[in-house]
Records
---
Amino acid sequence: MEYSIKEIVGIIGAKANNLQDSTISILLTDSRRLSFPEQSLFFALKTKTNDGHRYIKELYKLRVRNFVVSDMLPEFESLQDANFLVVKDTLKALQKLAAYHRKRFNIPVIGITGSNGKTIVKEFLYQLLHREFNIVRSPRSYNSQLGVPLSVWQMSEKNTLGIFEAGISQPDEMENLRPIIAPTIGIITNIGEAHQENFISTTQKCLEKLTLFNDCEAIIYDGDDAFISNCIESACLSHKAIAWSRTDSEAPLYIEAIEKKENETVIRCTLLGLTQKYVIPFTDDASIENVIHCLAVMLFLKPTSVNGVEKFAQLEPVAMRLDVKQGINNCMLINDTYNSDINSLDIALDFQQSRHVDKNLKCTLILSDILQSGTLPKSLYKKVADLVRRKKIDRIIGIGRDLKEYGSVFDMEKEFYNTTDDFLKSPTFRQFKNELILLKGSRHFHFERISELLEKKVHETILEVNLDAVVHNFNYYRSKLKPETKMVCMVKAFGYGAGSYELAKTLQEHRCDYLAVAVADEGAELRKEGISIPIIVMNPEFSSFNVLFENNLEPEIYSFRLLDAMIKETERRGITSYPIHIKIDTGMHRLGFQPGDVPAICERLKEQSGVTARSVFSHLVGSDSSIFDDFTKKQLEIFSAAAAELENLLEYKVIKHILNSAGIERFTDYQMDMVRLGIGLYGVSASGMKGLRNVSTLRTTILQIQHVPAGDSIGYSRKTYVDRDSRIAIIPIGYADGLDRHFSNRGGEVSIGGKRCPIVGNICMDACMIDVTDTNAQEGDPVIVFGEELPVSELSDKLKTIPYEILTSVSPRVKRVYYRE
Ligand SMILES: *Cc1c(COP(=O)(O)O)cnc(C)c1O
């Protein structure tokens, strides 16, 4: 769909001078996602943490000519033949444009809201209905104030059904989303505690969500959920309700029986007065509930031609993640098994680009035919080829008959195969080396066979790291700070155990100002991985100067001896103004100058030109605890005075910083010019602040289950005897993996299927034993050692230590696996 820029000016009510003719088909809000500059209209959005106006010059250089701005900055005057559409609020303008676009279509639109399951319900509906409807839907979980307008913008004349998600985190937000989605059918999945911070009560949140449905013809929900039913009632929406129920045989969709078997569930229900039996390939309650919502949609839409029963049996799980894994021969694998369509390909290609920091890796795409796209293959693959070229893919391997037939449209290194089998048998398959490979396939092509063979085989115990949670935590702290306050992210000690490279890449992508490591070699490793933002080395050694200079690492300077050596070294190398960071000891009594040293430091600095004090800082000893608040205040005062004196004497601006994570949480007023974020980034709040997300999950699997008769002992030195016939699970994690031996003999627990199970016997080097008698755990089941459901702080409390030690103790032999949601 295209709009002329003149039309858009009218629709969003912008002020604009000297408009140049232009046709817009793409709305761009993230400068990193640019692929078609001429057709893009960039919205300079202001968020708590960033300001899109900053990227306009950069985008102009990349040939973008159309911008929606709220601030007409003087620097824009020089950007010739660019259109600037000036509005009061750029996000509102984007929403207005999307709402206008939506009004042009008179098709059924399903709006889905609720706390959980929105994306799953949307994707299930897509699987069930794509043969009868040409469906447009939200890509992945684009359900925010920004995601919704971008999703709706995709609507075009060929679509016959829309499915969009709406999520809110604040009162009044649904008011904005309603005209954009303008659903004709509403689904509310369920209401939980998620995103509750900004609401007075769950009722307020639910009622707010329901406003999405004010103009719907039908509203679908779980009628047995008294809370939602009451909310529907008080919102005066009951006359449109299609409440399904397991208890009320008068309900429009009555669920008579739900019968769970080993790998499937039989749902017996009365639908349109007819009793029907559906078999679905899931047994968990959430999936069953999601499927019933879909059944209710079918009841309303009454799709005719097909055998619905069969389609339910063929439902496939929805993969939400983009996994990054270490592959063989120095390859990295990104596995995206999410639905294969051009939108999700676009998103996955962006993700691949953001991971492409090490430019020595070749960018390879393994793509299957895109099925059910509703577009003719010829034009579809032309579009794909265009996209793939713009995303700088070096090599494409296409699998499927269509790709083989239309392969000539790709103008890069390419190969095509009819089937996944053909590809697996080919010589190419054994020759992957130094590549960043994106695997993107429709389910029928079973790309998991490819990824299994390309993945490096490892120990079954892994540390899973959620990169989206890292970003969330980073932004969460950022939102507590003034926009101009810089942030250092501490990735010392291998990123508190989570692994520094992937984290550093993610933080660099999200525009963190500084990284900090403990020793120079850690910094050098990050440079090798392509990290280009400034890096501070906290404990530089005299022997490491070479590594410092060669990798452009900025040392912390804590003594005159180190300062002199550093100055001498810069002079010897003929370097000037090398940035250093002056550490003042205000009571920690670890490394640092004394506050009284400041005049002498400045004197020394002024008589040389080799180094420049980039920053001055100190470290708090007890910012997490109110019992030390008097001491902390004293530290803050001593530091403020010393830093001010240093700046005065040096007569240039020096960045001042003292707060660590708990400091940011509890002494925000002392953020000064910069803060240093450590443990909070990894999801642990030292002061008990809510709102962080869990980052790392240490998980393993059950290798074997043994039946141990009452009276027998378990493990080395016979430390645990069982007093009943027991089921004992053996899991492949021991003290060599970092599982502290003090957890032996019921001193610690793991979580299996949401149930806590005690560790029994002494923990061995590579394995330990778990009592699973009270569960129905099976061999092969996943086991969580720590994670969301078993917080690190619980483990550290048991050992009378701190979460930092648990996180950094996970041995390097435990593979780190990174993912985005
Ligand atoms: C490790 C460290 C931090 C981060 O501390 P957290 O408590 O993890 O936030 C900050 N500053 C210095 C000097 C550090 O060594």
---
Amino acid sequence: MIDTVQLAANWNAVRRRVDEACREAGRDPGEVSILPVSKTFGPDVVRAALAQGLNRFGENKVQEIKDKATALAGESIDWVVIGHLQTNKAKDVARLASEVQSLDRLELAEALHRRLEAENRTLDVLVQVKTAREESKHGLPAEELPAFLECLRAYPTLRVKGLMTLATLSEDPGEVRACFGHLRELRDRCAAEGHLLARLSMGMSGDFPFAIAEGATEVRIGTAIFGSRSYPVA
Ligand SMILES: *Cc1c(COP(=O)(O)O)cnc(C)c1O
């Protein structure tokens, strides 16, 4: 059962907290959007969110987008891929997604471009950059970003809009904030080299105020909107 009253309250509370973080950072709340992350939640929950006026959702598995898009056929929904993407999923992504925020390697750019050409579509993309120390984190190494952006010019179906990152899981707020600050500096350095990257997607339920303080234009929020996730036992 989805509690639509709870969902509306959560959504309003998150928007309020985001606005508050903007004011504390001296920023205009209109500069920061919220990407609701619906991963692991079923089509009924997405439908309830649609009723709240949300129509753009972050997902980390292409199979989930396929299943939900099928169940919600006829609804106008923008699906945003935020999870690690295997090259063999490029075809489904080219068909179903409105945006990919986890572009982290040329092989994937190439595969997406080929499929997008076949579909006669373009796709907004953010380059996911690794700013955390953990080995487990995906993302392009920061030092490779300038060359990567140059190479992406060969794939005109990919419209490069900005950068995305996941901060370290550290308990130390300073370390978390440093990851976000690093992404902003990279963006500014790229701008100086002629790559205009307006968007910075960074910050999740547990750390978004730091991301907003460091210049996020978009925060990706799952738990604080939809509640905690339960994963099926393998
Ligand atoms: C799950 C996920 C989020 C949202 O995380 P919450 O802590 O639930 O807000 C944000 N970004 C990515 C890449 C995710 O996989």
